[in-house]
């Protein structure tokens, strides 16, 4: 496909969406010529129709760059290059911020919709990859759980892996959440971010930025990160930040991973939150009202992870009582349940926090976590047991706690082989080896069900969902059979001084 037609098509794509102005046309055109090592531009023939699909434009440009030896044909180099291309037509941060806050004055939801669509149209959110993810639901005793197998992150090819061995280390940017990522060209071991944009916001009198995840796990998957590169700290100041966010953007939930290893997220070195437009399963969990004090209602949820839900119209009262819950949980031990607040290895109790605003009512979900380890459970006593590692071994963070499983891409191929095994099809030695970790589980499915071509996919999906349900139960500090102890802990939070609003 002719490169001039591709360049013209991309420019028209940018003009149509008002990413670039007519006055910028030649400026951007010459930037693209430089990108493709071209010295001149030939206007396409009038009879040649422009290409409207961004994926088709970028695929054509990547093929040209590979054929002309501008880049190598590898996943990493293609991602670095197509991001560089999109950087030429992505609007400047100042223009986006101005437009966002103009819309915000009318309606915060309009502003978010504008910004999200822009991040999709600039290919920062790679929708074509996200569509590859596998999604299904599992009807657990706690309600429907959402299961996803993440296929949107491309796997590195052997050439990329070989090059990474010789890649020099760099400390710039300090991490993938730092504000310095904006317009960064990337390197083999760090993604390009020429099309990254974020919105400055103020939470609890501190500077933060709102951006979207390039690999959205759910609708409008947002990330809110601190202006400063500092470790995760989930304290009452973080709760104030979360409540300020839902005050600014009530159409989104927002949450924070616990600030300790094992029970925290994958990035603990930069203070940040995750949120978005989705209604994840935990939000709809059955509530059991335990008590009310000083205009704050206390519920526990029928949920595998131990969750206290607080509701109030009064933000300051909610903050005051949340501080007390934090203090009490951080010092709570119950040896009968193997809950120890601290030992010679340090503190173990932590809280995963989720905030919402529904009308005038603020809602906080406080998910009680503990990261103690034992000789038999070196990855965590309240972490998935080894029996479930074949499905999920990684940390159970904020998103999973809320009932959305993010499962590794390897499962797609492995489950196709499990399917053959369940249908009594002949497997090669290589295939048998590849599903060795699943064999006990698959054999149980085989004994439990009469399996046919018509029901085998449902049986596998339900089997995965059942494992995820048990994974969440393993993370619960108060097990379902220990509900009495959980209720006793919540009722112990009743305090005389709250009656006077102090």
Strand content: 15-25%
Number of strands: 15
Mean pLDDT: 94
> Roughly what percent helix?
25-40%
> What is the distance, rounded to the nearest whole angstrom, between the alpha carbons of the first and last residues?
72 Å
Q: Return the CATH architecture of the largest domain.
A: 2-Layer Sandwich
The outline comes out as: globular
What kind of sheet is the major sheet?
10 strands, antiparallel
CATH class of the largest domain: Alpha Beta
CATH topology name of the largest domain: HIT family, subunit A
Please provide a brief summary of the model.
Keywords: Carbohydrate metabolism, Cytoplasm, Galactose metabolism, Nucleotidyltransferase, Transferase. The protein is of the alpha+beta class and 502 residues long. The chain has 17 helices and 15 strands.
